[in-house]
Amino acid sequence: SPVVFLHQIERQYRQGDVTLDVLKGAELAVWSGQMVALIAPSGAGKSTLLHIAGLLEHQDAGEVYIDDVPTSNLSDTERTRIRRNEIGFVYQAHHLLGEFTAVENVMLPQMIRGLPKHEAQERGAELLSYLGLKDRLTHRPAELSGGEQQRVAIARAVANAPRLLLADEPTGNLDPKTSEHVFRALTQLVRASRLAAVIATHNLDIAARMDRRVTLKDGRILEVE
Ligand code: ADP
Ligand code: ADP
């Protein structure tokens, strides 16, 4: 069964007197080991869909199943637990904590989950080394290049070994060569850990190398070539 199954998702926003129907029955299932590119124009609802899939935002109708568990009627505590343990996020801007080192940024979500410091440190160092950042463990974000910062953000996103990775234009701020490095890092992790991944991107070269491509049209998901 899919890691994430979005079933007939509807979402509206009120903007003054106007109601905006952003999602109108969006349907998407993603299996373990699958990388899905989400390609759609600005304003189509990509971030909204990712926030709903990541249990950061509630849909108005429809259901989000994570590993077959319907999530809409769960308590906030339970949704937070699933989000922390099962779901990793990568954003366009890295959102790393500036006063902490690279490895500390990757340790934090693990320590919030209750792992002992030395275990979090060991896994943090291992993940960063795996992503080619062995020599950057004790650098602070400001001392790293954009591509390196984004690889630290990827390591942080998978620090708690999630089943689902959601990325919102993870290479959006990077030049083509750096985007390539970051995409390879993402792919490496998705393949190694058999994650289900949904990656919103405007980069068609990168999208072409994922397993599936989908778009949002009139609030619905369509598979594209
Ligand atoms: P994308 O990520 O594809 O650019 P978004 O999901 O961010 O699209 O936004 C889809 C539409 O919903 C846009 O028109 C946006 O302005 C609107 N929107 C998003 N979030 C909100 C919100 N919190 N309140 C009102 N409108 C919103
Ligand atoms: P990548 O392609 O992996 O993102 P770059 O080619 O952009 O790497 O950067 C090369 C090296 O320069 C990096 O290893 C990084 O440590 C260093 N560097 C880049 N930007 C900065 C910065 N703002 N401060 C300190 N070092 C930097």
Short overview:
GO terms for molecular function: ATP binding; ATP hydrolysis activity; transmembrane transporter activity. The protein has 225 residues and is α/β, with parallel strands linked by helices. Helices cover 35% and strands 28% of the residues.
Plain-language structure description:
One of its GO terms (cellular component) is membrane protein complex. Residues 4-224 form the ABC transporter domain. Keywords: ATP-binding, Cell inner membrane, Cell membrane, Lipoprotein, Membrane, Nucleotide-binding, Translocase, Transport. The chain has 225 residues and is α/β, with parallel strands linked by helices. Helices cover 35% and strands 28% of the residues. It has helices spanning 46-53, 76-86, 102-112, 117-130, 146-157, 176-193, 204-208, and strands at residues 4-15, 18-30, 35-38, 61-66, 69-70, 87-90, 164-168, 196-200, 212-217, 220-224. The strands form two sheets. A six-stranded mixed β-sheet has the order 6-7-8-3-9-10. The radius of gyration is 17 Å and the shape is globular. The two termini are 24 Å apart. 42% of the residues are buried. The mean pLDDT is 95. The structure holds adenosine-5'-diphosphate (2 copies). Residues 143-148, 178, 181 line the site of one adenosine-5'-diphosphate.
Question: How many strands?
Answer: 10
Reading the helices and strands in chain order gives EEEHEEHEHHHEHEHEE
Binned, the helix content reads 25-40%
Shape estimate: globular
Which ligands are bound?
A: adenosine-5'-diphosphate
N-end to C-end Cα span:
24 Å
Number of helices: 7
Rg over CA atoms:
17 Å
Low-confidence stretches: none
Largest beta sheet: strand ordering? 6-7-8-3-9-10
Structural class: alpha/beta
The major β-sheet equals:
6 strands, mixed
Q: Provide the residue-averaged pLDDT.
A: 95
Beta content: 25-35%
Keywords: ATP-binding, Cell inner membrane, Cell membrane, Lipoprotein, Membrane, Nucleotide-binding, Translocase, Transport
Protein name: ATP-binding cassette domain-containing protein
GO molecular function: ATP binding; ATP hydrolysis activity; transmembrane transporter activity
Pfam family, one: ABC_tran
